[in-house]
């Protein structure tokens, strides 16, 4: 049973929760330490979530709850492996999740 925000779609879906040119500024938190704030379902969904705030100091988020890309123009923090558990996000079936990008 999930008590989080869940995004599901087809294998061709794209979920836009923020891009480098249009960061969203959403806040994704969850008070239950055994559940993720956001769950991205179905394999091959391509999701962007740039410019949001997450649970601080969890799953490599900074102390301010923000994700940062490696230094350099065009560098990205892209998750492309399945992530079955985590407090901020899960990608149980794979797909991609872009958490940060430098212009």
- Global morphology: globular
Q: What is Rg?
A: 13 Å
Structural class computed from helices and strand pairing: mainly beta
The number of strands is: 7
Strand arrangement within the widest β-sheet reads 2-4-7-5
What's the structural domain tally?
1
Poorly predicted sequence stretches spanning 5 or more consecutive residues: none
Order of helices and strands: EEEEEEE
Number of helices: 0
In helices, the fraction of residues equals under 10%
Q: Estimate the mean pLDDT confidence.
A: 90
Distance between the termini: 38 Å
| Biggest pleated sheet | 4 strands, mixed
Q: Per DSSP, what share of the residues sits in E-state strands of 2 or more residues?
A: 15-25%
3D structure, described in words:
- By secondary structure, this protein is mainly beta.
- The chain has one domain.
- It is built from no helices and 7 strands.
- Strands 2-4-7-5 form a 4-stranded mixed beta sheet, with no helix packed on it. Strands 1-3-6 form a 3-stranded parallel beta sheet, with no helix packed on it.
- 29% of the residues are buried.
Set out the fold topology.
Elements: E1 5-7, E2 14-16, E3 38-40, E4 46-48, E5 76-79, E6 89-90, E7 96-101
Parallel strand pairs: 1-3, 2-4, 3-6, 4-7
Antiparallel strand pairs: 5-7
